[in-house]
Amino acid sequence: MFCAKCWCSPHYTILLPSGVLRNEELCIVGSMAEEFFEGFHIDTFFMSISGISLTEGLRDYGVGEYQVKKKMLENSQSCIVLADSSKFDGASLLKVCHFERIVRIISDSKLSEKILQKYNKEGIEIVNKLILEEK
């Protein structure tokens, strides 16, 4: 967990919302976490997701995570989704949002060319390869 690595470093200030820590997901959920994010303006929200479907949108399993993600989306200018290739064309319990709120999706290199083309055809940008800038 990134926070654990940075915890002792004097170079970082870490803001943590209050709420309930879900150990299995390493996330903080609950009404106190939602209220915490209500006061923030978020330029870019990087959001993990449990399922992505062209017809069903972006979905998640946990009710607590769902509610916090909805609040963070409300307060963000843009959203970038982080999802490995196993999340595509899969359904999950709760709809977080549809694609109009998403700038792009970042995935792994295992994403099939067929799925990549299908989503690109619908105007959804997916980054799934390491891009190296030449100097």
Question: Please, could you describe this protein's structure?
Answer:
- This protein has 4 helices and 9 strands.
- It has 135 residues and is an alpha/beta fold.
- The protein has a 4-stranded parallel β-sheet. A 3-stranded antiparallel β-sheet has the order 4-5-7, with helices on one face.
- A hairpin with a 3-residue loop joins strand 4 and strand 5.
- The two termini are 32 Å apart.
| Quaternary class | single chain
Radius of gyration: 16 Å
Helix content range = 25-40%
Largest sheet: 4 strands, parallel
Q: Taking strands numbered 1, 2, ... along the chain, how are they ordered across the largest sheet?
A: 3-6-8-9
As a percent range, the share of strand residues is 25-35%
Would you tell me the structural class of the helices and strands? alpha/beta
Span from first to last CA? 32 Å
Poorly predicted spans:
none
* Mean pLDDT over the full residue set: 84
Can you tell me the overall shape? globular
Beta strands, count: 9
Features:
135 residues, alpha/beta, four-stranded parallel beta sheet, three-stranded antiparallel beta sheet, 4 helices, globular
Condensed summary:
The protein has helices at residues 2-6, 31-38, 63-74, 113-121, and strands spanning 20-22, 27-29, 42-48, 51-53, 57-60, 76-82, 94-97, 102-106, 126-127. With 135 residues, it is an alpha/beta fold.
